[in-house]
Amino acid sequence: MQTLAAPTFQALHQANPHPLKLVVLGDSIVYGFGDPEGGGWVERLRRRWMSPDSPGHVLYNLGVRGDGVRQVSQRLENEFRHRGELRNRVPDAIILSVGVNDSARLRRPNGNNFTEFDVYKGELANLLEQASRLCPVLFVGMVPVNETKMPFLDCFYYSHADQYRYKEATRLACQKKQIPYLDIFELWQQRGENWCRQHVCEDGLHPNVAGYQTLLQDVLNWEPIAQLSAGKLAYLA
Questions:
Q1: Looking at residue 55, what is its pLDDT?
Q2: pLDDT number for residue 1
Q3: Which residues contact 68 (CB under 8 A, 6 or more apart)?
Q4: Element (H, E) at 149
Q5: What dihedral angle (degrees, nearest 10) is formed by the CA atoms of 39, 43, 48, 49?
Q6: Can you give the three-state secondary structure of 62-122, one letter per residue?
Q7: CA-to-CA dists, residue 189 to 3, 146, 161, 164, 196, angstroms
Q8: Are 90 and 134 spatial neighbours (Cβ–Cβ below 8 Å)?
Q9: What is the CA radius of gyration of the chain?
Q10: Cα-Cα-Cα-Cα dihedral of 66, 47, 83, 14, to 10°?
Q11: So what's the pLDDT on residue 231?
Q12: pLDDT for the residue numbered 228
């Protein structure tokens, strides 16, 4: 498929001042699994922007449970080109959040990673390049798991050590592409182990209701999203 040169938010706003349309692609934490009250951080943000008292941007949740970087990359452009709402229109920005499933070890704590580390770095570079050619991109990092609850589904072993390797590779790849990256892993770990465990479901992997509430606030406090919410669109200019 043909790709587009990605304009800046400032250019988009000057050319056509309308509520922006954003797509969020990722895994089960984008999907919102574990939050029966609010539907996850993306759904909570979507509802916030839908308020008649303070209308915001249009947000499409394209999270798929179990997805890794390769699966997101494979569906990225097709999803993107079918979320413009109007004919011959495409979304204005992409938010990505993926990587935790890639870091899991299979069948035993020292088993092979779901996506081998060097393969992950190559797939991630491809994903970021593909997304950047379409429109401005943001990346929301992964939540730290509760290691004491492993294995997940009696098969997948997630660990902070593996999460750190994969999130650092993601952070550095985003830095290289000048893509804003929100380091949720680091932010949550700074709050302490007990705090983290209290904000994750019994499965050890997904945030619970309180976790998603906090995750939403972390996203809203992040400068790129804070500026979007305030209608200031020039931060990626």
A1: 65
A2: 33
A3: 27, 98, 99, 101, 102, 114, 115
A4: none
A5: -160
A6: EECCCCCHHHHHHHHHHHHHCCCCCCCCCCCEEEEECCHHHHCEECCCCCCECCCHHHHHH
A7: 38, 11, 12, 11, 7
A8: yes
A9: 17
A10: -130
A11: 57
A12: 76
Average pLDDT for consecutive 10-residue bins of the chain (237 residues)? 41 56 96 97 93 78 96 94 72 94 96 98 98 95 97 95 98 96 98 98 97 97 83 44
Q: Which residues contact 48 (CB under 8 A, 6 or more apart)?
A: 56, 216
| pLDDT for the residue 230 | 66
- Provide the pLDDT for residue 96: 98
56 vs 76: CA distance, rounded Å: 24
Tell me the whole-structure pTM to 2 decimals. 0.89
Tokens of 176: 């290289």
pLDDT at 57: 87
Question: 102-106: which pairs have CB atoms within 8 A and are 24 or more residues apart?
Answer: 102/68, 102/69, 102/166, 103/142, 103/158, 103/159, 103/162, 103/163, 103/165, 103/166, 104/152, 104/156, 104/157, 104/158, 104/162, 105/156, 105/157, 105/158, 105/159, 105/162, 106/155, 106/156, 106/157
Residue pair 160/175 in contact by the 8 Å Cβ criterion: no
